[in-house]
Structure formats: C-alpha cells, structure tokens
C-alpha cells in the first residue's frame, strides 16, 4: 500500500471513529430519572382504531368501557395527573364569543346531542350540550354515558385556572392561521413562566403564526416534525440540530428512533440543549404517525433506563409499567 493511500485510510478511519464517538450514547451523560409521560386526551374511552378516516365517528365505535372518564374534561385531566401523567394533551376550537372550547371533534354531531361545526358555536351554547351523548359500544343499543356529560365541555381558560402549574399540550385542530393568532393572543397574556409549561401542535399554518408571535412556546406541526427528523437523520451526525427541531416538541415514532444519531441519551441531550422536548410515539407505518406507546410490548422496545418523553393513550397502564403510578 502506498504512503498516500495509507494516509487516506488513516484519515478515513479517524473520521469514522470521530463520528462514532460523537454519536454514541455510551459517552453521553445519562440524565437519569423516569420517563416523562404525556397523556393523550387525558384518560379517555378507547375505540376501534382500524380503518379510521378523518370523519370517522369514534364515539360510535367505542370499546367496552373500563372506566367512566370522558376525554377533554377537567375530571379526566385531574385523574390523568393523579395517575402519573406529567403532561396532558387537549384539543381546542375557537368559539364565536371569543373563547376556546376544549373538545376533540370538528363537529358536534358524533359525540354530543348538538349539531354543526364546533367553532361556529358560542361557548355558552357548548356548555349546554351532553358530551357523553353519542358513546356506544354495541352499535347503538345502549349509550352508557348519555346524560352524564351535560355541561362538561370546558373552556381553555377553565383548564388554565384548574391546573395553574401543570404542563399542558394544546392541539389546534384547524389549518386556519387566524386561529393561531387568536391562541397566540391568549398565550401572550400568561406569565413567561407559565408559557414555558405549555406546548402547542397542529396545522402548519396556525403553528407557524404561534411560533412567530409566541417564540418562547414550544411548538410542532406535521411539516415541521418531518423536516426535523429527515434533516437530523441526514446530518445530525455532525452534532448540528436542524432549525425545525429547535424550541420544539419533537415527536419520534418508536421504529424511527434507532435511526436518530446518538439515540437515546445524546439525542435527548441535543434536544434539551435547544429547548426542545422529545416524545416517543408508536410505530410509523407510512400512512401517518401512530397514536402512542400503549402496551408493555411497545414499551419494551425502548432502551432500558430511557428517561425521555412517552406519548400514550393508556396513562394508567404506562405509568404503572414505568414506575410512575401514584397508586
């Protein structure tokens, strides 16, 4: 082997070794502690998730209930935090009287005894509805929560008042930039310390507005998370963190995680260093992001002593399995 070739080989080996050292978790500081648990919709009624479409009425395909909590209610949120959640996710819609209603569906027809588009109503009107009206696990033969959800749809202001020091994730359900501006107006009235405990995700357009008007609130949108992960996989080996990953909520499908440079500890440290919080989801299958890490089998796919974020629809189960249950 010629001298020049030997030098080239030595340089390549040194570079490869440097990249490896820079991206291994073996030498990265381990933050310790237990995972950060995010309860999606709080404690909620589960439903058959097969062949879902954007307009599927999930309340009409509820699984046999194991509890009597309804999603997006103050009661459910209280129970989620009591069960071990660090963060509770909730959905919002602007109302005609200047509030934000906490409710999942774009329309009222599926889940309530009302009709019409949620954002076309006043908060006062929404307070009169029965949000448990449409739930059925037997094709409409029985409705176990009918009459039990009257007046239980909260306003976002009520959630802030009920949980003044708890971490919240707000889901903007539209792609309307005006909604982003309205929510930004609400968030800017909060103290800076309170804003640091709130994250927002949703449609690209409203999230872009919130990111611009309230830059200290961590955000993510579908386009941003795709940009974040693709770019990080592309050049994260350098230690550089893409702009889309900064001051963000970084959602990581569990089957994509091993492809991230420095997974888990060095990756988590890099995200923390740019004021971002990373949360593992269930597997990405090509059709969209999965719902959450909801079973012992999925949880077992995370590295031992993993201390990052976990997104789950089964907060009671996952809190118990991770040792965070308050029972």
Automatic annotation (TrEMBL):
Domain GP-PDE: 51-322
InterPro entries: GP_PDE_dom, PLC-like_Pdiesterase_TIM-brl
PROSITE patterns reported in the protein's UniProt record: GP_PDE
Gene Ontology molecular function: any one: glycerophosphodiester phosphodiesterase activity
Pfam families hit by this protein: GDPD
Keyword Nucleotidyltransferase on entry: no
Top-rank EC class of the record's enzyme: hydrolase
Keyword NAD carried by entry: no
Enzyme Commission number(s) from the entry: 3.1.4.46
Keywords tagged on the record: Hydrolase
Protein name: Glycerophosphoryl diester phosphodiesterase
């Amino acid at each position: 082997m010629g001298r020049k070739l030997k030098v080239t080989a030595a340089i390549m080996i040194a570079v490869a070794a440097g990249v490896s050292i820079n991206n291994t978790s073996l030498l990265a500081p381990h933050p310790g502690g237990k995972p950060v648990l995010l309860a999606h919709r709080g404690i909620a009624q589960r439903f058959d998730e097969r062949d879902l479409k954007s307009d599927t009425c999930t309340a009409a395909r509820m699984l046999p209930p194991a509890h009597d909590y309804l999603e997006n209610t103050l009661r459910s949120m209280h129970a989620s935090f009591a069960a071990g959640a660090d963060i509770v996710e909730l959905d919002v819609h602007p109302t005609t009287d200047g509030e934000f209603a906490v409710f999942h569906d774009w329309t009222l027809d599926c889940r309530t005894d009302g009709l019409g588009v949620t954002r076309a109503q006043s908060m006062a009107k929404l307070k009169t509805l029965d949000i448990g009206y449409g739930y059925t696990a037997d094709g409409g033969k029985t409705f176990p929560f009918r009459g039990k959800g009257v007046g239980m749809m909260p306003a976002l202001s009520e959630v802030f008042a009920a949980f003044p020091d708890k971490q919240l994730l707000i889901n903007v359900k539209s792609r309307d930039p005006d909604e982003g501006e309205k929510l930004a107006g609400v968030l800017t009235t909060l103290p800076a310390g309170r804003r640091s405990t709130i994250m927002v995700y949703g449609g690209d357009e409203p999230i872009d507005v919130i990111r611009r008007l309230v830059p200290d609130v961590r955000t993510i949108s579908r386009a941003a998370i795709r940009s974040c992960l693709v770019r990080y996989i592309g050049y994260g080996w350098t230690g550089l963190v893409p702009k889309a990953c900064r001051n963000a909520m970084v959602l990581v499908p569990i089957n994509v995680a091993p492809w991230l440079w420095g997974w888990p500890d060095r990756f988590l440290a890099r995200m923390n260093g740019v004021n971002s919080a990373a949360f593992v989801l269930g597997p990405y299958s090509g059709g969209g992001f999965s719902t959450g890490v909801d079973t012992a089998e999925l949880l077992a796919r995370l590295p031992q002593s993993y201390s990052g974020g976990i997104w789950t629809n089964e907060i009671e189960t996952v809190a118990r399995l991770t040792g965070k249950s308050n029972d």
